[in-house]
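User: Can you write out an input/output pair for a complex, sequences first and structure second?

Assistant: Here is one pair. Inputs:
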Amino acid sequence: MADRTDLAFFGARQLAGLVRDRKVSPVELTQLYLERIERLDGRLRAYITVLPEAALASARRAEASVMRGETLPALHGIPYAVKDQFDTAGVRTTSGSRILEDNVPTADATTIARLNSAGGILLGKLNLTEFALGGTQQFPFGQPRNPWNTDHDPGGSSSGSGIAVAAALCAVSLGEDTGGSVRSPASFCGVVGLRPTWGRVSRHGSFPLSWSMDTPGPLGRTVEDAALLLQAIAGYDPNDPLTSYAPVPDYGRALGDSVRGLRVGIIRELTFGADTEPEVRDAVVAAARKLEGLGAATEEVSLRLVPLAGAIFMALADADGAGVHHRWLRTRAADYDHGTRRRLLTASLIPSVIQQRAARARALLRAEMLDLLARHDVLLCPTAHQAAPPIAAARAAIATRHEAAGRFFTRRSYVTPAALAGTPAIAVPCGFTRSGLPISVQLIARRFDEATLLRVAHAYEQATDWSKRRPPDTA
Amino acid sequence: MSDLTTDHVAALAAALGLQVASDDLVEVTHRLNALIEVLEPLAALQLETVEPTPGLADGPPAS
């Protein structure tokens, strides 16, 4: 049997097999992750709430099921953790804000109920930027830190979801992606993050930001694990009228299939644009070449509105968020982190003509993307224009509008196109900077074609060893 | 579009019943001006005939 650190870094699918074969017990696994949280999370601050008693009780029940020889669901005995944006019955759910520090839901979010039904063991609730907005200056429940270099940003808004997977503080995690909130932490923390098609996964019981873009999404150390978690949470939910009735395919089935003959469009503006740092560009181009080597056909493609995607997104999603928060902005403004408050106040004042233009430009951008995806199986670009920046950089005061534009719009133009178009997208590790920080390639597929997305991502992952590396000081 | 001043921003906020603390006012003004400026190129596009739909999920399956 592998040593305990190796075991903690195993993929969830691998662990599920060990549990099924009675080579590892759910109690042993749960204790392993709880010990790691106890030892490492004081430094990383991935968790807001840890649930040792409840997790061990679930693990003991799971172990009893194994010993009785029962038929076991896909995630049976697998310790997972969720962004503290998802309601958990009887467990405090803060959305990363002091405003909700005493909020204890009475019911589980649909995603949580489905993960538990699939046999998952909930370890705890994960840290996030306040109300999943991004830009938090002072985290109310501790500053989350990147496991690859704790002076650096882990990404957001699902910060803890990225950290916990990267540092093996859980087997898999659930995040939520409105405009990159799963893919950004996956990118910065060197793990896999999947944004499903909007409407594929229920939003019920998740604190909202933007109704037309919010979607829960899995993070894992492998593409296989992202597929495994998606399988558990996808599908129609009567509590979310905007979920799709489309049947959920077997996402695991296509993993391992060849990518020979698939067409890959490399988004020129994001891959070769001036904002993309050379180390990132080189790693992403190398990833495209790797897919070519596996038999895919690549070509450069252009999306003319993509450089404006970040600003279009903020004009729409932030305005939605301002509506969600209007009452608290009037009555509890001082209880927000000042970064969150300033973003929401700004969003409250966006002129309607700007919002209308942004909404129409979004429709144009979506049409351009869907047109490209009619001719290509996937689109490819960096997940982020840079590796994880220092935490201190995000705390610098904004003294000019130019600084505001650089801070808020540029980086979002890489992850928001898929959100604006409602397409699925996945972030996969594709290299490291000279300073040892992860770099990530993003793949985007047609609506409801997560199977192709996962197939291409898996083929790339299997042909490289980026996902096998571990952050320092996480033994 | 003309630049918004801190006075403009405070007045807009007040119209919505929002108070912007003096600590926040300069940065909120920079953020709002930046967003308006960055999206200015959209004014040159032929957007009037584009319907601003977000791309909705499908309906129930045919029985």
